[in-house]
Write a structure and sequence with these properties.
It is built from one helix and four strands. The chain is an alpha+beta fold and 142 residues long. It has one domain. Strands 1-2-3-4 form a four-stranded antiparallel sheet.
Length: 142
């Protein structure tokens, strides 16, 4: 019969009361790996959210410019990388638009393509959005 220790355990040398150094190092390595992975996922999520915000802004600006053309406020003439008119919203100042006008397959119509691009270097892969609409060709008489 084994004698009991003052703490109530049997007096064996094989009983452990704490973690080994190897277990602590391994658990810290797993924790560091998990934190690094979560940080990278967070960074990717923020970048995708920024891209989605820019794409939404480009779509709204493109629809606005196309509405100006179809309403007759501006002429349907070819333009390349023109800046938007200054407004109170500073976000619009970093966007450029291009208008491309081509004859459509149907007589009396023309194809108008409006493309909005963020004014960034190509290395940063700027967001771009295009909208195409057929409009009546005012230069032709019926």
């Amino acid at each position: 019969m084994r004698a009991k220790s003052p703490r109530g355990r049997t007096g064996t040398r094989g009983a452990r009361a704490a973690f080994t150094l190897l277990e602590v190092i391994l658990s810290l390595a797993i924790l560091c790996g998990a934190i690094a992975t979560l940080g990278e996922l967070s960074r990717l999520g923020m970048r995708q959210a920024e891209k989605a915000r820019d794409l939404t802004q480009a779509q709204l600006l493109c629809q606005s410019k196309m509405a100006e053309i179809t309403a007759g406020l501006i002429a349907a003439e070819a333009q390349e990388s023109a800046p938007f008119e200054p407004t109170e919203d500073q976000a619009e100042s970093e966007w450029l638009y291009s208008i491309e006008v081509n004859p459509a397959a149907e007589e009396g119509l023309m194809e108008v393509r409006v493309t909005v691009t963020k004014d960034l270097p190509e290395t940063r892969r700027p967001v771009e959005f295009s909208l195409v609409r057929w409009v009546v060709d005012q230069s032709q008489t019926f």
